[in-house]
Specification:
This protein is mainly alpha-helical. The protein has one domain (8-245): Rhopdopsin 7-helix transmembrane proteins. It has 9 helices and 3 strands, in the order βααβαααβαααα. It has helices at 20-46, 53-80, 89-122, 127-130, 133-159, 176-182, 188-221, 226-234, 237-245; strands spanning 10-13, 86-88, 168-169. A 3-stranded mixed sheet has the order 2-1-3. α2 packs antiparallel against α3 (89-122), α3 (89-122) packs antiparallel against α5 (133-159) and α3 (89-122) runs parallel beside α7. It holds the Pfam family 7tm_4.
């Protein structure tokens, strides 16, 4: 029998037995992740020397990472501990929405950071005037808004699907693919929308980053001294580290 989301109160995560060792491992990793990002936020906010556009974007990225991990990890820890192995339909929908929207924001912020480095190296004399605090805030706000809006469409489609039992999730968080696998009704529209959004988000952000670094590298290679080239490229280290981690 087909069941709409309103026909049941909770979904179950498949967890046959508690995994205390994995729980401790993920708990330590979660604490370190949150603590590290909080330390970055405090350092950037308290140090006047770090009040730069790049550090502003890094603080946005750190704030995003705190919520990104918090959206999924605490529930996963409860499951590994053998407790709270159910989740309401609303909670499942909200968790999926937060995880994927925050993931999209990460791509957009990294693209904004690449654009910032392009301006700093390609237009060094005009960088301060171009990349003002207003433009930095607009790029950051645009990243957050686009991330939230991008996942709103597939979330709306998923909320209208009907599902057949059993409502068991063989994963540590609510992935879009799991919704599609458990749905009884047609999922073609959801799959198409999810594919288009993923393609647009990843392609656009990667294209901005790629084009920015093509101009950055071409500009650095024209610097006559090796020390000058090294110093110019070192300004991109924080952004390259973020891209590598993603």
């Amino acid at each position: 029998m087909e069941m709409s989301p309103r026909n049941f109160s909770c979904w179950a995560f498949q967890a046959p037995r508690p995994f205390s060792s994995l729980f401790m491992l993920f708990l330590v990793m979660y604490i370190l992740t949150v603590s590290g990002n909080v330390a970055i936020l405090v350092l950037v906010s308290t140090s006047h020397q770090l009040h730069t556009p790049m550090c502003f974007f890094l603080s946005n990225l750190s704030f995003l990472e705190i919520w990104y991990t918090t959206a999924a990890v605490p529930k996963a820890l409860a499951i590994l501990l053998g407790r709270s192995q159910t989740i309401s339909f609303t909670g499942r929908l909200l968790q999926m929405y937060l995880v994927f929207s925050l993931g999209c924001m990460e791509y957009f912020i990294l693209a904004a950071m690449a654009y910032d480095r392009y301006l700093a190296i390609y237009y060094p004399l005009h960088y301060g005037a171009i990349m003002s605090s207003l433009l930095s805030a607009q790029l950051a706000l645009g990243s957050w808004v686009c991330g939230f809006l991008a996942i709103a469409v597939p979330t709306a489609f998923l909320s209208g699907l009907s599902f057949c039992g059993p409502h068991a999730i063989n994963h540590f968080f609510c992935d879009i693919a799991l919704w599609i696998a458990l749905a009884c009704t047609s999922t073609q529209a959801v799959e198409f929308v999810a594919f288009v959004i993923a393609f647009v988000v990843v392609l656009s952000s990667c294209l901005i980053t790629l084009v920015s670094y093509i101009f950055i590298i071409s500009t650095i290679l024209r610097i006559p001294s090796a020390s000058g080239r090294s110093k110019a490229f070192s300004t991109c280290s924080s952004h390259l580290t973020g891209v590598h981690l993603v």
